[in-house]
Amino acid sequence: MCGIVGLLVKKPALRASLGALMVPMLTGMTERGPDSAGLAVYTTPVPDDRHKISLYSGTHAVEWSDVLNTISQAFAQHHEMASHGNHAVLTTGADADEMVAWLRRHMPTVAVLSVGQSIDLYKDVGAPADIARRYQFAELQGTHLVAHTRMATESAVTPAHAHPFTAGRDFCLVHNGSLSNPHLVRKRLEPLGIEFETDNDTEAACRFFEWRLREGDDLKKAVERGFSELDGFFTFLMGTENELLIVRDAFACKPAVVAETDDYVAIASEFRSLAHLPDISQATIFEPKPEEIYSWRI
Amino acid sequence: MANLKPVPSAREFDLSRDSLRQLNLYLHKEAVGEGISQIRVQNPDGAHSIACGLDAELDVHIHGHVGYYVAGMNKHATVTVHGNAGPGAAENMMSGRVHVKGFASTAAGASAHGGLLVIDGDASLRCGISLKGADIVVGGSVGSFSAFMAQAGRMVICGDAEDALGDSLYEAVIYVRGTVRSLGADARFEPMTDVDRAAVKGLLAAAGRSENPDDFKRVASAKSLYHWHADANQEY
Fold this sequence. Notes:
Number of helices of chain B: 2
Low-confidence stretches of chain A: none
CATH superfamily of chain B: Glutamate synthase, alpha subunit, C-terminal domain
Strand order of the largest sheet of chain B: 1-2-3-4-5-6-7-8-9-11-10
Shape of chain A: globular
Order of helices and strands of chain B: EHEEEEEEEEEHE
Helix content of chain A: 10-25%
Strand content of chain B: 15-25%
CATH architecture of chain A: 4-Layer Sandwich
Oligomer: heterodimer
Strand order of the largest sheet of chain A: 7-2-8-1-14-13-15
Number of strands of chain A: 16
Largest sheet of chain B: 11 strands, mixed
Helix content of chain B: 10-25%
CATH topology of chain B: Pectate Lyase C-like
Radius of gyration of chain B: 19 Å
Mean pLDDT of chain B: 94
Strand content of chain A: 25-35%
Largest sheet of chain A: 7 strands, antiparallel
Structural class of chain A: alpha+beta
Largest interface: A-B, 16 and 19 residues
Low-confidence stretches of chain B: none
């Protein structure tokens, strides 16, 4: 079991309360996923010559100002860092690939959670409410977000195995379900130079879709290809810098409910995570049909 | 002078304030003793297992959307959901009546032995899976694998059916008004008889619906799976 949560606000005025609207959605999915939680929030993009890199130090105590100083010595460009305990978002004018490679080499205790111009990513182990408090999710602002509560069934409970998974730029995916052929997918992708960070089945799906996006598919086309390539049960919820997409497997084994109003599109595994939303009694409420792709743009 | 204390005939629970356990305990025990027949439930907000395991002639009205297993194992009671239902609505119902005014998620009426389940909107996949004797009337359409391995009972579908309707049916009978994307293994269309039309008429009336029984088609088991055929090569 796991819980998925997605929220896209249509009115710019609501962007300031994106996190506040979402926190009860996330904590409402605690019974479905009590062991870890995470989210990707999409904000106004940084300028073209900059990138945001979400960083996580786990149980290692990291002095982020020292990290920033070291980065500034190694890279001439301008950098900024916003931190919350063991989490930080680095905004950098350096080449993003070079920066990630450098971080991996010189800062092995710091994990790179996401890279992009809109995405900020948080994930950790523990109860969803604790994680929401730890990273002040209620304060988050942005256009849309993708969140997850995890009940691990096929790989370990660690921050790295928590969702969302990311690949490439500004792409993330959360998953309720289990895949039966992640190793085959991985075997196919690794010879193409695609590196994996965990043994998690969802990571295989995430890297498959991101590979298709780089090959020129749009997200819908990539998901359609996934129907024949990915075997198993899934409700996938995905985010890009301007899109939120949900799809369920052919058997609709895993639940999902969508509530849409003029102001927002809210998605969760169950209605109980949507019940608190404003004007929910006026919302159009439906369950996504199996193998039908639903997406919304900001 | 006799003490004319008014006897309450209805009771209201508000799940934003009262716990689900309080409600279900009340429905199982106190409501029966107090002679209260009508119970209203406000703010269900998608909670699971509301009004499960009832065993008395209660009339429960739930105002809002419910989560998993509403009115599961129901016996004797009438449970009305003024909203949508999550997975497993009225699963294993034994008798009584469950009415979902909105749509129902997967596996509505699964393994239900008796009683009537009415869904005004659509039902998702696996509606009436392993049905064991209950009647189900769906005002809208049903998802794939509905009535899978249904053993006894009747299912009336006023809209369409997706794939594999009635796969591996036993003695249950399905009446469908709209289009069927595909029948499951061993399910087949059969001619409607007067007995079938009377059955559909009665079920529609019981569900408060006005469709014409003549518009329905009968789906039942071809019974070719009842006995194992060595020559079938597992292709049915």
